[in-house]
Amino acid sequence: MRRIMLLFIGVAASTGLCLAPAHSQNTLLPPHKLQFEVASIRESRLGGKANSSFPLDRSETYSPTGGSFVATNQSVVTLLIFAYKIKVSEFSSGLMGHLPKWATSERFDINARAGSESPTKDDMRSMVQSLLEDRFKLKAHREMQMKPVLGMHLTKSGMTGPQLRSHIPNSACLTLPFLATETLVPSLVGRWPATCGDGTELRISRYRLREGGRDMKMSAIADWLSGAGDTERPIVDKTGLQGTLDFVLEFDPESLDREGLSSTPRDDSGPNFIDAIKEQLGVQLKKEEDSITLFTIDGIEYPTAN
Q1: Of 6, 43, 243, 284, which one's alpha carbon is 20 to 30 angstroms from that of 233?
Q2: CA distance 290 to 256
Q3: Alpha-carbon span 208 to 253, nearest angstrom
């Protein structure tokens, strides 16, 4: 899971609970009924790279596994994001931060099997929700609150930048026939990343980071950029752009501060985040207030033994 996600997670309060303010609007998480037929959860002892049967993200990228779900060296945060499709903005204001320390530091290996041999990715999400609620005793809800945000607006009305374009319907999301690191950035739009429906990042060098996505709504791109830019306020789409889009953004990650602003760029670096989104995507950010959805953890426990 992307490093930026973890920056939104704090240390738990002593009560282990997150109580919603009186003025917020609470929305119960949707009910679900699917469960794994069998499931084993063990603390990961070997370390190494996280791995899974298919991408544990918010996209629809999925290869059938015959009902098998295998995830190794995964954090609880990764499982939460996958199961509930949690957006970056839903971590804001620390409401996701009421997690015990083990939930952000410990890694787990999960080996499970569905009762059906042909579950969809959303079926798998539902079964992981059941697993979290049964074995981790997860209690959570979503709520609406007015919060400070960064509104994302088009710099010029009706015009996007050169690296933000409408997605071509029915374009295949397949492995690319070239190395993304060896291709001019503008030509990557609509061709990189290989999968559709969520963002991807690629570290080109210490001073150059590439972010991109295909077939994404502008609201999803804005949310992804909240993490990419490590902004203190969540970014909310105010462009009015409809349909789905493709984008590629390249900037210097070393130049970020808490508002996404930066100092003078180096000769070998990309532009700072604010300049990059303006020049490459044709958008600018404005400080505003808006009603946003927050994902709230009410309680979670260390998983029960198999």
Answers
A1: 243
A2: 24
A3: 7
CA distances from 292 to 91, 146, 185 (A): 11, 6, 33
Q: Give CA–CA dist 225/230, Å, rounded.
A: 8
What are the residues whose beta carbons fall under 8 Å from the beta carbon of 2, sequence distance 6 or more? 201, 227
Q: Could you count the other beta carbons within 10 Å of the beta carbon of residue 47?
A: 8
Vertex 149, ends 143 and 151: CA angle to 5°? 120
Cα(101)–Cα(82) distance, rounded to whole angstroms? 20
Rounded CA-CA distance 202/248 in Å is: 11
- Edge-to-edge, what's the strand order for the sheet holding 68-74? 36-43, 108-114, 68-74, 51-52
In the beta sheet, which residues pair with residue 40?
111
Integer Cα distance of 10 and 4 in angstroms: 13
- What is the three-state SS of 164-179? EEECCCCCCCCCCCCC
Please calculate the CA angle 53-57-58 and round it to the nearest 5 degrees. Answer: 135
Q: What are the tens digits of pLDDT across the range 194-238?
A: 778 888 899 888 888 999 999 999 999 999 998 887 788 899 999
Q: How many Cα atoms within 13 Å fall on the side-chain side of residue 176?
A: 17
Task: For residues 230 and 7, give the distance between their C-alpha atoms in angstroms, rounded to a whole number.
Answer: 8
Calculate Rg over the CA atoms of the chain. 20
Asked if the model's pLDDT at residue 193 lies above 60, the reply is yes
Residue 193's identity, in one-letter code, is P
**How many residues are listed for the chain in this entry?**
306
DSSP states of 216-277: EEHHHHHHHHHHHTT-SSPEEE-S---SEEEEEEEE-GGG--TTS--SPPPTTS---HHHHI
